[in-house]
């Protein structure tokens, strides 16, 4: 009003202009508020939809996988070699679908803050050793050597065991999967002040520099990975970061295309 009165002598006109501008600003603010509310509601509905669909798919998918395994076993009739090849394809794709449904459900729970967390004291070293045993056949078939170098007398960490297992599983699976020739995966675990430091280094295809800023985004898969036709949901690293940050840690990576990647995370010592 004070500014307008300097240029317009009629106070009624100044007051009218102020009222009009105020009304316009109010309508703009109301429109923005409604837009944010609609966006929040859309995100909530999207998360609920993904959660419901994922839950509904789990049971029929499990039945489908069970039926395939039963047919492949030959217990209900002999399967010819040619038929067995197609059943193997069905089984492989059903496993991929199971992985996708599981990851989608985890993402939905993360985004709605409904991922249950039950913290307990764990020896991270033991969890890593168990996963190395589990992944050894996959590594051997891929001609990949796994080396684990833990520091001695490491303390326990207070974490959700199932969640930290999911993180390590994703990182180890990626490290082996993205090595396209005889290679090596090195895992380190050590104490750094009041944190436990985990590192996994591979000699794989690496991540192109232009893709690195997107690596923790949902469904992102770098171009060189797509060229190598490596399977994956594109959700593992998004989930890993969400879990580590929820547990009070930090996660990051270093990578060079053609030379491999190093992923690492820290967790606070209780």
Automatic annotation (TrEMBL):
<dbReference type="GO" id="GO:0000155">
    <property type="term" value="F:phosphorelay sensor kinase activity"/>
</dbReference>
<keyword id="KW-1133">Transmembrane helix</keyword>
<dbReference type="InterPro" id="IPR036890">
    <property type="entry name" value="HATPase_C_sf"/>
</dbReference>
<feature type="transmembrane region" description="Helical">
    <location>
        <begin position="13"/>
        <end position="36"/>
    </location>
</feature>
<feature type="domain" description="Histidine kinase">
    <location>
        <begin position="52"/>
        <end position="270"/>
    </location>
</feature>
<keyword id="KW-0597">Phosphoprotein</keyword>
<keyword id="KW-0418">Kinase</keyword>
<dbReference type="InterPro" id="IPR036097">
    <property type="entry name" value="HisK_dim/P_sf"/>
</dbReference>
<dbReference type="GO" id="GO:0005886">
    <property type="term" value="C:plasma membrane"/>
</dbReference>
<protein>
    <recommendedName>
        <fullName>histidine kinase</fullName>
        <ecNumber>2.7.13.3</ecNumber>
    </recommendedName>
</protein>
<keyword id="KW-0808">Transferase</keyword>
<dbReference type="Pfam" id="PF02518">
    <property type="entry name" value="HATPase_c"/>
</dbReference>
<dbReference type="InterPro" id="IPR004358">
    <property type="entry name" value="Sig_transdc_His_kin-like_C"/>
</dbReference>
<keyword id="KW-0547">Nucleotide-binding</keyword>
<dbReference type="InterPro" id="IPR005467">
    <property type="entry name" value="His_kinase_dom"/>
</dbReference>
<dbReference type="InterPro" id="IPR003661">
    <property type="entry name" value="HisK_dim/P_dom"/>
</dbReference>
<dbReference type="InterPro" id="IPR050736">
    <property type="entry name" value="Sensor_HK_Regulatory"/>
</dbReference>
<keyword id="KW-0902">Two-component regulatory system</keyword>
<dbReference type="GO" id="GO:0005524">
    <property type="term" value="F:ATP binding"/>
</dbReference>
<keyword id="KW-0812">Transmembrane</keyword>
<keyword id="KW-0067">ATP-binding</keyword>
<dbReference type="InterPro" id="IPR003594">
    <property type="entry name" value="HATPase_dom"/>
</dbReference>
<dbReference type="Pfam" id="PF00512">
    <property type="entry name" value="HisKA"/>
</dbReference>
<keyword id="KW-0472">Membrane</keyword>
<keyword id="KW-1003">Cell membrane</keyword>
